[in-house]
Amino acid sequence: MDVVLFTCAGLRVDIVNAFRAAGAVALAVDADPLAPALYHADRQAIVPRVADAAYVPALAELIAEHGVGLVVPLNDLDHPVLSGARERLAPAVLLLPDEDVCARMSDKLTAHRFFVERGIASPRSWELDEVPADARYPVLVKAREGFGSRNIHLASDPDELAFFRRYASVPSFVQERCRGEEFSIDVFCDLDARCLNAIPRTMLHSKGGESIKGASLKDWELIEHGRLVAETAGIVGPANIQCFREPDGTLPVTDVNARFGGGFPLPTAAGSRYPELALALARGEHPEPQLGEFEEGVLMSRFYSEVVLTQNGDGSLRPLDPVS
Fold first, then answer.
1. Angle between helices 13-21 and 274-282 in degrees, nearest 10
2. Fold of 3-95
3. Taking the complete model, does pTM exceed 0.70, yes or no?
4. Which SS3 state, helix, strand or coil, does residue 177 take?
């Protein structure tokens, strides 16, 4: 029995359902009892918040109690904590890169410098007080650690840049805005950071930084680029790579999220079999790379849904209607 623990389950009903369809028993946890993914899992638990010292011990207790073989973090929030607690979560396999990789990819300016040093294109980026006179406007003032398009401001000229430098409420940096078409590449790597597949998709429409509409794309330049970026970064498990195709033909990387992307349903529908690959890794298997093995032209258009809950009488909640 493959029991998978999903941390910070939140809204990620799509991922929980996909692993269940692949044969896993889903154990979803969150600090919020109203997190919808809890009620689509086979088992659920309320745990302390990520910043609480009791968070990792609570997960370790659940792993032992339920015989968990795989831990899949669904949000960036607990990556710094879990990547440094791998041994405490054993014998479960943690589907997350090493601590230094997580730290490097979560700091967008540090990630930019890392890729440039290794010959991988990334938009010109600077500390807030180091923007040169030849910077190409508009530029973006971006949070160094952020997600969901939070704390990103567009500055059209030096005066606006000066304003947003003062306005920024979190540690930020400045990045030139790309001019080309944006793509996301959903990759999956084994425990040795070898890329098993890379599935590009168009960004037809996004909201709050999350893909709402898109299509799978069998573009071999993007597939190879995704593989190169993932293996250079040292990704273990899933990652979402965001890049642009610029007029000069370069593919600058703007973001690497070491988790399943918001557009997860699209590569899944296109045949990624990423949940099956994750379960194989947890069982100690060594799947071979299958780059390019997916269906092109699969379209996704997302919508809102809900879980309606009622009190159980003991302080817990249950779905009012059966959850499909």
1. 70
2. Rossmann fold (3.40.50)
3. yes
4. coil
Delimiting residues of CATH 3.30.1490 domain(s) in the chain: 124-176
Range 9-33 burial, b when 16+ CB lie within 10 A, else e: bbebbbbbbbbbebebbbbbbbbee
Comma-separated ranges of CATH 3.30.470.20 domains in the chain: 179-301
Domain 179-301 is in which class? Answer: alpha beta
DSSP annotation of 24? P
Phi, psi of 304, rounded to the nearest 5 degrees: -90, 150
Pinpoint the residues of the chain covered by CATH 3.40.50.20: 3-95
Residue by residue, pLDDT tens for the chain (324 residues) are 799 999 999 999 999 999 999 999 999 999 999 999 999 999 999 999 999 999 999 999 999 999 999 999 999 999 999 999 999 999 999 999 999 999 999 999 999 999 999 999 999 999 999 999 999 999 999 999 976 667 899 999 999 999 999 988 899 999 999 999 999 999 999 999 999 999 999 987 777 667 789 999 999 999 999 999 999 999 999 999 999 999 999 999 999 999 999 999 999 999 999 999 999 999 999 999 999 999 999 999 988 889 999 998 888 899 988 776
Cα torsion through 294, 258, 122, 262, rounded to 10: 60
> Could you give the C-alpha distances from 134 to 157, 158, 253, in angstroms and in order?
12, 11, 21
**What class has domain 124-176?**
alpha beta
Helix or strand (DSSP H, E) at 161: helix 158-167
| Per-position DSSP letters for 134-151, written without gaps between them | TPPSSEEEEESS--TTTT
**Concatenated DSSP letters for 120-133?**
-----EEETT---T
Distance in angstroms (rounded) separating the CA atoms of residues 118 and 225:
13
String of b and e for 108-133 (b: at least 16 CB within 10 Å)?
A: bbebbebbbeeebbbbbbbebeebee
What's the rounded Cα separation, in Å, for the pair 175 and 287? 38
Residue 227 host element (H or E): helix 220-233
